[in-house]
Amino acid sequence: MELKSNALKNRRQLSFFWSVIPMIVMLGAISIGYFVFNIRAEPMILMGTATASLIALAHGYTWDDILKSICDKIAEALPVILIVASIGFLIGSWMVSGTIPMMIYYGLKFINPQYFYISAFLLGALISVCTGTSWGSIGTVGIAMIGVAIGLNVPLAIAAGAIVSGCWFGDKLSPVSDSTNMAALAAGVNLYSHIAHLLWTTGPGFIICCVVYVYMGMGIDVSVETPENISVLMNAIGHIYHFNLFLLLPPIIVLYGSLTKRPPIPMLFLSTLVSMILALVFQDFSASSVGESVVSGFKLAMLEGNNVAAFPSDVSRLLERGGAISMFSSFVTVFSAFSFAGAMSATGSLHTVISALTKGVKSTFRLVLTTIISTFTICACTANGTLPLLLCGDAFKEEYKRRGLATKNLSRTTEDAGTVVEPIIPWSASGVYCATMLGVATLDYLPWAILCYSGIIFALLWAATGIGIAKYQPGDDPERLVEN
């Protein structure tokens, strides 16, 4: 007892200078590592964790103090890690069952050229809501739609902007999206409360997108035939899978769970199980291939008795997706970010930094603006849209409560300034990925990716007027990630 008392006496409160150094080290290391040496963000985040730990030790904190704080933070992240793993299982099973390929096939088949932009936007939104992955949607329906755009000879910048807007709409609002779950987790918000509150900023953006894309599509020549490459792609997909209405059951299960606010993990596993059964009943895959798809992702090599080499290269790029192993990078990001947050929390550094940032901030508008600037800065400096969700959500949540604001305002704002903004930052991981997959420069499609920046505009508008700003109720504390 006496040793513990002496240890407490040796601890010294960190000044703002020492509190902010780990953040500067982390952001500086990520910026230099990414731009100069092309190093992933996670090792650089751990450099910030090491810096925070050394500073804590120098101020009288013990390694046990730091380790306990890190473990507590990682324990908070376990629900979202389980959800991320479940999403990997889900996408792999939807691929092998034919659910996602069927969406792509019939989406391409029934698109009216004059409504190409709005179709690209809505199809991307539908698939991303069902799958919860913007990257997966870009890599599947996005690639297919940009091929249609090339064949129709429509402006590719508008087409790419509509595709990106649609794919990130679902990534923001889907209950199976890893970023949506991370934003809710970090801010301590119930997942479905977070999604419902996002409609205040995402809903108006969605309406604006629909109006603009319908208007811009009116000038498209409807006499153009379906491009040959799209016909070949559709024929290949139709040859691989047997389509029927039962394949819609897996996304219906997920949507039902979302609408009825069921716990997401059981619904994801139920959808995965149903998809695996459908794959065995209706598709030409062995049981071992179905199991492998769920774990390692779907591969065309699993087809039995088919000449895989005869399929166009676009087919493999569209269909070889999913699997729990494909989500490993998300696990590492969550682990690294929460380790950093834990090391900072051990000394109260995060609270010190946030107190300094919010000093003199008296209005809700200024607080939301500060959150947006902080989130966007971390996103731009780290080229990563996930990290600011975790760091800013964890750092600002007590400040929002202290000012009488529900933390779902915070989780919404971090998504508005982080998740959907990332694909319009040219050097970010999502910006580079979209430009590469779609063949359109980020700055070219930026003006037309309306959903990616409209959220910030409406977040500031609602903060200034008080509309759509939820008040904190003591009974909401603690808000849980998943309702039981």
Task: Describe the secondary-structure layout.
Blueprint: H1 2-10, H2 16-35, H3 41-58, H4 63-97, H5 99-109, H6 116-131, H7 134-152, H8 156-173, H9 178-187, H10 191-217, H11 228-240, H12 249-259, H13 264-282, H14 287-296, H15 313-319, H16 328-346, H17 349-357, H18 364-382, H19 387-402, H20 407-419, H21 429-438, H22 442-445, H23 451-465
Walk me through what this model shows.
- It is a single chain.
- The protein has 484 residues and is mainly α.
- The protein has a domain at 78-327.
- Helices cover 72% and strands 0% of the residues.
- The protein contains 23 helices and no strands.
- The chain has helices at residues 2-10, 16-35, 41-58, 63-97, 99-109, 116-131, 134-152, 156-173, 178-187, 191-217, 228-240, 249-259, 264-282, 287-296, 313-319, 328-346, 349-357, 364-382, 387-402, 407-419, 429-438, 442-445, 451-465.
- The protein is globular and about 70 Å long.
- The two termini are 39 Å apart.
- Residues 478-484 have low confidence and may be disordered.
Please summarize what this structure is.
The protein is an all-alpha fold. Helices cover 72% and strands 0% of the residues. It contains 23 helices and no strands.
Percent range of helical residues: over 70%
What would you call the structural class?
mainly alpha
Approximate strand percentage: under 5%
- Please summarize the sheet with the most strands: none
Shape field: globular
- CA radius of gyration is 23 Å
